[in-house]
Design goal:
The protein is of the alpha+beta class. Helix content is 12%, strand content 21%. The longest helix is centred in the middle third of the chain and has 8 residues, at 42-49. Residues 87-105 have a biased composition (Basic residues). Residues 84-105 are annotated as: Disordered.
Length: 105
């Protein structure tokens, strides 16, 4: 089970914001950082912080394993049919009767 960790954002440059986790040695002072919330994964913290900030990057010191981790592509399992369902049989078309005139008009 994951343990929740507190995440913070800080202004890195004029256009870049860094995402830090609690205990980072490069975490700025409390007056120059913003608390994002307690999240279970760095990806979740990034999603939460993207709601308020743009151009966010992971801190290269405390979240370096996230930035360099190579994620193997996930292949979905093949779909298994649940039952042998078939289309219902088509009903035969009913013949339409046409009126026949026996006497000339």
């Amino acid at each position: 089970m994951y343990k929740s960790i507190k995440y913070y954002v800080s202004q890195h440059t004029s256009r870049t914001v860094l995402l830090h986790k609690e205990g980072c040695q490069y975490l700025p002072r409390p007056d120059s950082r913003s608390f994002i919330g307690s999240c279970y994964t760095p990806a979740q913290a990034l999603t939460v912080s993207l709601m308020q900030y743009s151009n966010i990057h992971y801190c290269p010191h405390c979240l370096s394993d996230v930035t360099h981790a190579k994620v193997a592509p996930v292949n979905p399992p093949p779909l298994i049919p649940l039952c042998g369902a078939k289309k219902p049989p088509k009903k035969p078309k009913e013949k339409q009767l046409k009126a026949v005139r026996h006497f000339p008009v």
